[in-house]
Specification:
Number of domains: 2
Mean pLDDT: 81
CATH topology of the largest domain: Neuraminidase
CATH class of the largest domain: Mainly Beta
Strand content: 35-45%
Low-confidence stretches: 1-34, 45-51, 295-300
Structural class: mainly beta
Distance between the termini: 37 Å
Number of helices: 5
Number of strands: 31
Largest sheet: 6 strands, mixed
Helix content: 10-25%
Shape: globular
Length: about 450
C-alpha cells in the first residue's frame, strides 16, 4: 500500500443492492465534501464487502469519468485542463496526459477509447483523445448550441444537452461523419444527461430538478417520462439497458432498474455529500465528493450546516457583453454549481420575462431586494439567488447574492471578475462555493 496522503480515506458500506445480478455487481466510490477530490475507494465484491483504497492522486480533482473495468480519467488544475488516467486500480500508477486545449466544463469517455471534453468558447468546443500514445487532442465540429452536459464514448459517439431553455439534444454517431444530429427537444429543461448512442439517453431536470425522461431509439425520436425522482437530483448515470442511478443532496442515492415497474429504489445514504456520479447499475458506479478530515484551504471552508431551499433568478445584464442571454446562461451554470455545494437545494430557475409578466414588474422592481424576497415567499423557498453580469471597460464582473425571503436581507454575496466573457464558466464553481460558505 502506498504511503498515505495527509489523511486516511473514510471507508463506508452501501447497504443495498444496486444491480440485477448481485454476484456481478461492482461499486466504485470516490468521495469528498466539496468540489475538489483527493482520494478514491473501490469495492469489487459486495458479498465480501471489502473496500480497497487508492490513497493518492496527482492533483486535486474537479471532473472525472471512467469505470472500474477500464479505470479512471481525472481533470483539475487551472481551468480543469490538467488530465491524468489510471488503468489499474491496484497499481495506483497515475499517468498524465497533455493539457486540454480549452477550459474544461465536462468530461465523458473511458480509458479503452479515450476521454472527451467540452468547454471553451461559449461551451461549444469539443475535443477527444483516442490514444494516450499519441497524446494529442483532436477537435470535432463545434456544437450547434451551448453545451450543458455531455455523455457517451469514443466507441459509440457523443450526446450533448443544452441550448435554448436547456432542452436541446444532439449526437455525433461517428467522428468520420463529424456531424451533430439533433433529436426532439426534451420535455423539460435538462440539467444532466447520461447514457450512450448504443443504449439510449436519460435526462434529468425540470420541476425541482426531479423530472426524468429517456429516449430509447433515435429513429423513434420520442421521449418517455418516468416517475419523478424521490429527491432533487444533482447528477445521473446509467443507461436504458440497466436503468438510471441518481444522487442528491443530503447524501441521497437511488436507482431504477425497470421502466415498467417505474419505481425508484433508495440506496443507503452516502457517508457525506457527493456531487458527481458515473457508471451503470450492472458495472458499478462512481461518486465523488471530498475525503473527510482534509485541512481546508481558504477556498474550501465548510459550507453552512443549514440547507436552503432556493430559486435562482436570471441575472441582469449591463454593458456590451457580446453574447445573447448572458444573464440567463450564467444563472443556469450557477444553478448546477449551487446544487453541488450541499448548502442549497435549487428548485427552479426563474426567468426575468416570466417574473415581469406574472408580477407586473418593471426591470427596476426586479432588482429590488424586497420585491425579490416577496417573489420567494410566494414560491415557498427559503432564499433567492440573483445577481448581475456587468461589463465596464475591459472588466466583466459577475456578482451574485443570496437573499433571505423572510427578512429581505442579503445572507451572502460574492463576485468574480474576468477580462474575457469566455472565462466566466471556469469561475462559476468558485462563486457558488463562496455563497455556500459560512
Amino acid at each position: 500500500m502506498k504511503d498515505k496522503i495527509s489523511h486516511s480515506i473514510c471507508v463506508f458500506i452501501v447497504a443495498a443492492w444496486l444491480f440485477l445480478i448481485p454476484n456481478q455487481s461492482l461499486i466504485f466510490l470516490f468521495a469528498q465534501e466539496t468540489l475538489l477530490s483527493n482520494g478514491f475507494a473501490y469495492m469489487e465484491d459486495t458479498i465480501a464487502n471489502v473496500w480497497q483504497t487508492i490513497e493518492s492522486v496527482p492533483f486535486p480533482v474537479k471532473l472525472f469519468t471512467g469505470n472500474i473495468e477500464r479505470g479512471l480519467i481525472i481533470f483539475g488544475g487551472t481551468g480543469s485542463r490538467q488530465g491524468a488516467f489510471l488503468t489499474d486500480l491496484e497499481s495506483n500508477q497515475w499517468a498524465t496526459i497533455a493539457d486540454a486545449p480549452f477550459d474544461v466544463m465536462g468530461v465523458c469517455g473511458d480509458n479503452a477509447f479515450g476521454p472527451v471534453v467540452f468547454g471553451g468558447n461559449n461551451n461549444r468546443q469539443v475535443s477527444y483523445m483516442r490514444r494516450y500514445t499519441d497524446n494529442t487532442w483532436i477537435a470535432v465540429q463545434s456544437a450547434p448550441f451551448a453545451i450543458k452536459d455531455i455523455t457517451g464514448t469514443n466507441e459509440f459517439g457523443l450526446i450533448i444537452a443544452g441550448g435554448i431553455d436547456s432542452k436541446e439534444v444532439a449526437y455525433i454517431k461517428s467522428y468520420a461523419s463529424n456531424e451533430w444530429i439533433p433529436v426532439a427537444n426534451a420535455p423539460f429543461s435538462i440539467t444532466k444527461i447520461a447514457g450512450s448512442n448504443q443504449r439510449g439517453v436519460i435526462i434529468v431536470g425540470g420541476r425541482e430538478n426531479r423530472q426524468v425522461a429517456y429516449m430509447k431509439d433515435y429513429s423513434e425520436n420520442k421521449w418517455y417520462i418516468i416517475a419523478d425522482a424521490p429527491f432533487p437530483v444533482i447528477d445521473i448515470a446509467g443507461n436504458n439497458a440497466t436503468g438510471p442511478v441518481i444522487i442528491g443532496q443530503n447524501r441521497k442515492m437511488a436507482y431504477m432498474d425497470n421502466y415498467k415497474e417505474n419505481i425508484w429504489k433508495l440506496i443507503a445514504d452516502t457517508p457525506y455529500p457527493v456531487y458527481q456520479i458515473t457508471g451503470t447499475n450492472d458495472g458499478g458506479v462512481i461518486v465523488c465528493g471530498k475525503i473527510p478530515g482534509t485541512v481546508a484551504t481558504d477556498s474550501e471552508r465548510p459550507v453552512r450546516g443549514i440547507v436552503l431551499k432556493t430559486s435562482v433568478v436570471e441575472f441582469t445584464e449591463r454593458g456590451d457583453l457580446g453574447i445573447q442571454d448572458a444573464g440567463a446562461i450564467v444563472a443556469e451554470w450557477l444553478t448546477t454549481s449551487l446544487n453541488k455545494t450541499g448548502a442549497f437545494e435549487v428548485y427552479e430557475r426563474l426567468s426575468l420575462s416570466t417574473l415581469m409578466e406574472e408580477h407586473k414588474l418593471g426591470m427596476t422592481g426586479l432588482l429590488d431586494d424586497e420585491t425579490i424576497a416577496e417573489i420567494g415567499r410566494i414560491r415557498g423557498v427559503d432564499a433567492i439567488v440573483t445577481g448581475s453580469v456587468i461589463k465596464f471597460g475591459d472588466i466583466i464582473s459577475v456578482t451574485a447574492k443570496v437573499i433571505d425571503v423572510e427578512t429581505a436581507k442579503i445572507i451572502k454575496s460574492s463576485d468574480i471578475k474576468v477580462t474575457d466573457i469566455n472565462e466566466i464558466s471556469s469561475g462559476i464553481d468558485e462563486l457558488a462555493g463562496e455563497l455556500a460558505r459560512e
